[in-house]
Amino acid sequence: MSFTQTQSFGRFLVLLCFSLTITISSGATTISVNQPLSGDYTIISEGEQFELGFFKPGNSANYYIGIWYKKIKSNPLSIVWVANRETPVSDRFRSELKIIDGNLVLLNESKSQIWSTNVSTTTTLKSAIAVILDDGNLVLREGTSNSVEPAVWQSFDHPTHTWLPGAKLGYDKRTKKSQRLTSWRSKEDPAVGLFSAELHPSGKEYVFKWNGSQQYWTSGAWDGKAFYLVPETRLDYNYIYSYHENVNESYFIYSVYDPSIISLFILDVSGTIQQLAWSENNKELNLIWFEPKTQCEVYALCGSFGICRQSGSPFCNCLTGFNPRSESDWNQSDFSSGCVRKTDLQCGRNMEKQDFLKIRVKNLPPNNSVAVGSAGECRTTCLNDCLCNAYSFVAAQCLVWDGNLLNLSEDDGSGNTIYIKVASKDLPRPKKSNNLIVVVGVVGGVVLFLVVVLVLIYRKKRVSLSVGKTTMEGLLVAFVYKDLQIATKNFSDKLGEGGFGSVFKGVLHDSSIVAVKKLESISQGEKQFRSEVSTIGTIQHVNLVRLRGFCAEGKNKLLVYDYMANGSLDTHLFRGKQVLNWERRYQIALGTARGLVYLHDKCRDCIIHCDIKPDNILVDANFHPKIADFGLAKLVGRDFSRVLTTTRGSMGYLAPEWISGVPVTAKADVYSYGMMLFELVHGKRNVMHCEYSSNTFYPGLVSSVLMKGGDILSLLDSRLNREACVEQVTKICKVACWCIQDEAESRPAMSLVERILEGVSDVSMPPIPQIVNLFVENTGDVVFFTDSPSKECSLAQSNSTGGEPNRRVHHLKGNSLSSLLCSH
């Protein structure tokens, strides 16, 4: 399963192909000796949060006993626990879940026991009951449904693929065993899959394994606040993670600030761990975060003879000469079954019908053996060995593989070469230089071209009948322009506009609401545009707006995004009737920082946004920030600086290097982010008009209050009535001043900003930004000086030293200053 393409839209597709057949609730609350569960009967928790009964995944013919969120039971991801994972039943009406001899037991249609709680108990036959609690825990105990008797067995001690809030996930020091999350075998088979996650005996980190043995990822050590490699587990506005240890056990537990939020922590069939939350507004489960971020880190993701390409879509492909073992599984992004040869290898006399496919891989597959000989002898050894599937000659050593090849990942530039044995006829044929072939090829090419043109015309006519029938590289939808015209009512419902073009609200044929951006100033050809858009489409993060698709027809270049009902931050900050409270403002600042960290540091290539401002920060139904327009600077290309410098409303956020001609780096985004932080505190634009003074230029006022140790809450949006955390306001003001330092080298990286806002790192008193001095001390045409980067001007120091510094001179006329800072 790929995550750089599959977020909410991917889950929509899953819904279509994986609709669950879940029984209709009967309203019962317990299972007892005299009240078994069968057929369409279910039991429901007291607060109607969870439900237990028989369910059938997708098109499977099998039924299972499971627990699901009652409110969203039509969603396949609502299943949180499965009892009989390995032993399904075929007839739910003749099967029973009942109490027998103090145990909860499942009997199949033949009345054979196929699952049991298997506890040794003194509970009498008449008093044992099974109850599902409002936290999703199925408990077996004595008494009645309202009894407070301790549980003799509970499902929380036996998790399947989901970790629920309130449940322990830990290590038992007495039995030396860990509680494991184990993935489903496939999206329609809840049997134990290949991937598992468990707490390391050290109690400090979770390890992820393939097939119970091969570790492929770790959460990193717990530092008391978060896992090193999962910063999302740090205390935030939704979840609280905590670690507990005693003489008997060590475990982690997490809770949700708002108990009404439906939350899921699952180990997916793709081998990734995912945190999901239900959006009441969108009526879908949203992906909050997932790990590992690099999908190809998951061991054997593509199965045997499959190769993982991190930049590809989908991630997995079969090697040349191989086909998917199960087309249906691969169509559902389940690649674990791997690939099989198109043509079986011939052993004995037909060695000339076999050859080798040369590929470069990041790491050589495991389970090789060593043979003696040179590179040529190594090749001959493998060719003559009927069992040999591949060889590699590395460091003067011959390595051969007899079994299936697993964990192949495309070379990232530092890998090794491996030679895969395949049937000669399945390899690409070498080109031959022959005049006849050339002539035939040209004629054939012309004919083929005409056929292709006719086919494309025919397909175009067919495609226009339905929006999004074609896709480009996975789940990024290639829309037809005419269909987007219909969806947007001929681009009549305008949501806004910016330097890249206008945005319109649209409704697709499936009734889903989207935002359609009609791009301007795009001079790229269709092929290059598709390539760039494909790259943008692989960028997925909880704090980035998801790209759903595109349209590229001649001069018409459009992008289709998820629609954010709450619109952009500037609407709520500057024009909204309801005032954003401080907690939301702080979380918007933190979420935006996280999104920028992902763009700058965690994508394959550093992506500079170039236009960070409240107008480009969208907020979802829960006011989580999502950065819009990322990656569009690359689409516009060299014309981008002209687009920005002629864009209304962008000037107040541009770093000095945009004007002075210094090369633009990710620190330009840091500057823009700093300007936005000021506005989050103040609730107004930094500059409302072009008559500057220390009073009208808000960053100047902030610097003054910080340096003088004044009343920090006096800087706050007056509508908040001073209701804010003083420490947080001070922290944001200091960070903002650091972010708008004149020299890019003096500004912090966004990763440091993130750590500061999370409370991991401290922030010292910033020097007064030179741009503030510009307005406080000068008017008209200005010549201002900026200190060269030095230890005195680093984030680690609280004050600059005295003396005359080395200086570089920047001349900015009044009109240049207006271009840099004025929000018209």
From TrEMBL:
Annotated EC: 2.7.11.1
Family: Belongs to the protein kinase superfamily. Ser/Thr protein kinase family.
Coiled coil: none
Lineage: Eukaryota, Viridiplantae, Streptophyta, Embryophyta, Tracheophyta
GO biological process, one term: recognition of pollen
Amino-acid positions noted as binding ATP in the UniProt annotation, renumbered to this chain: 518
Signal peptide: 1-27
GO CC, one annotated term: plasma membrane
Taxonomy, superkingdom: Eukaryota
Catalytic function, reaction form: L-threonyl-[protein] + ATP = O-phospho-L-threonyl-[protein] + ADP + H(+); L-seryl-[protein] + ATP = O-phospho-L-seryl-[protein] + ADP + H(+)
Keywords tagged on the record: ATP-binding, Cell membrane, Disulfide bond, Glycoprotein, Kinase, Lectin, Membrane, Nucleotide-binding, Phosphoprotein, Receptor, Serine/threonine-protein kinase, Signal, Transferase, Transmembrane, Transmembrane helix
InterPro entries hit by this protein: Bulb-type_lectin_dom (IPR001480), Bulb-type_lectin_dom_sf (IPR036426), Kinase-like_dom_sf (IPR011009), Pan_app (IPR003609), Prot_kinase_dom (IPR000719), Protein_kinase_ATP_BS (IPR017441), S_locus_glycoprot_dom (IPR000858), Ser/Thr_kinase_AS (IPR008271)
Name of protein: Receptor-like serine/threonine-protein kinase
CDD domains named among the record's database cross-references: B_lectin, PAN_AP_plant, STKc_IRAK
Pfam families per the UniProt record, alphabetical: B_lectin, PAN_2, Pkinase, S_locus_glycop
Boundaries of every Protein kinase domain copy: 489-768
UniProt keyword Flavoprotein present: no
GO molecular function, one term: carbohydrate binding
Membrane-crossing segments per the record: 436-458
Subcellular location, record wording: Cell membrane
Location of the Bulb-type lectin domain: 28-153
Residue ranges of domain Apple in the record: 347-424
Organism: Lactuca sativa (Garden lettuce)
Enzyme class: transferase
